[in-house]
Amino acid sequence: MGSYTIAVLPGDGIGPEVTEQALRVLHAVADRWGHTFFFQQALVGAAAIEAEGEPISDATMNLCRRSDAILFGAVGGSPRREGSNATIRPEQALLRLRKEFELFANLRPVRPFQALLNTSAIKAEVLQGTDLLVVRELTGGLYFGKPSEIRETAKGYEAVDTLIYTEAEIERIMSTAFDLARGRRKLVTSVDKANVLSSSQLWRRVADQVATEYPDVTFEHLLVDACAMHLIRRPASFDVIVTENLFGDILTDEASMLAGSMGMLPSASLGARRTAHGMFGLYEPIHGSAPDIAGQQKANPVAAILSAALLLRYSLNLKKEAQAVESAVEHTINAGYRTEDVREEGKNLVGTNEMGSQIVQALLVVEA
Ligand code: NAD
What are phi and psi of 212, to 5 degrees? Predict the structure, then answer.
């Protein structure tokens, strides 16, 4: 039994709908195991721009700072605010959170549910046994390197982006991947483009150094283009994939299709900061605010609920409870409940709230 403070930032579009279901599940966890969760809710994204004039206020940042973890929904989707020349954009909230809390490691576990293997675009026999974790570097590389600009020259316009990584940045993400592999099947695949890029050559050199500290973990390098192919051809052969920001961005969307829908995949963003219980982190589904289905009870809440499970595991150190939430989701899917995005002939099609209710009920009976 323990007391924990969780900042809840539901955001925009389907963000609040799926976060509500994740909160119901966390309330059920509190009831079953006698924990006390203090939920502190605040606005973020377009909702915060509308009410407070900025995507995330200082007050909300402070609220997050005082918490053990952040449960995040999704931001974006207000076309009125998102013209190409809008200077205040909802997504800036996420960048501020990642930057100020130095959330440099983005974890995306991909473990397609057995009962959903036939809903994926990939053949079931290829998917069979897939259980991988992508560890993406989140605060460096092309997305943050300077200069990044379009400039005018005598011969017309030119553009530049800068791919820069320091040894220390590579070392910490590599150590994170190796530490995580030790709790899994002990295989790390480092993905780069070392045949072309200098940044990848340093990446490989540091990766090799870190690997010597983990003699119990099997280690391999893979070029990013080959990795894109092997993810589809032999996904079950991977355990932990670690890669830089841009490669990770692209490979994780590709990997999400292994699980059948964006609505199924959770993520955790972790940094060096520790709390009294575990690692401080931000937990969110990998999908966005999905304005096309917002307010229609069509959103799949599973990604948000599995994100809450990651929060229990990594930030609150409540491993048994995290496992129980994951089992409750699997139990509900095995019982035939499906939201629109993974609908199947002969299965029970339900809305967002009903899917949440079924998972809450399952949580009360699954073994822990
Ligand atoms: P999206 O992830 O919101 O939606 C892509 C497609 O997947 C849509 O057809 C949507 O209906 C479907 N989908 C997404 N989540 C679903 C769920 N839980 N259940 C069922 N179907 C689901 O991506 P988008 O449409 O490219 O972007 C919409 C907005 O979200 C944009 O403003 C974008 O910038 C923002 N965005 C935010 C985040 C974030 O908050 N981390 C991530 C990606 C996109």
Answer: -65, -20
Contacts with 367 (C-beta within 8 Å, 6 or more apart), sequence order: 324, 327
For ligand 1, pick from 262, 265, 350 the residue to mutate: most ligand atoms within 8 Å of CB: 262
> Is ligand 1 within 6 A of the CB of residue 293?
yes
The ranges assigned to domains in the chain are 1-112+261-368, 121-136+165-259
> In CATH, what number does 1-112+261-368 get?
3.40.718.10
Confidence of residue 257 (pLDDT cuts 50, 70, 90): confident
- In order of 131, 179, 253, the CA distances from 311 in angstroms are 19, 18, 21
pLDDT of residue 118: 85
Q: Which residues pair with 151 in a beta bridge?
A: 158
The SS3 of residue 261 is coil
Active site residue 253: yes
CA of residue 249 relative to chain centroid, distance = 11
Residues 258 and 235 sit within 8 Å (Cβ to Cβ): yes
Which residue, judged by its Cα, is nearest atom 20 of ligand 1? 299
DSSP characters for 84-141?
Answer: TT-SS-TTHHHHHHHHHTT--EEEEEE---GGGGGGSSS-HHHHTT--EEEEEE-SSG
Q: What percent of the chain has pLDDT over 90?
A: 88
Please tell me the class of the 121-136+165-259 domain.
Answer: alpha beta
Q: Is 225 a catalytic residue?
A: yes
- Judge whether residue 229 has pLDDT over 70: yes
Nearest to 356 by CA among 329, 330, 334, 335: 329
Tell me the whole-structure pTM to 2 decimals: 0.93
pLDDT at 259: 87
pLDDT given at position 86: 67
Give the pLDDT band (50/70/90) at residue 16.
Answer: very high
**pLDDT band at residue 85 under the 50/70/90 scheme:** low
**Mean pLDDT score across all residues of the chain:** 95
Active site residue 143: yes
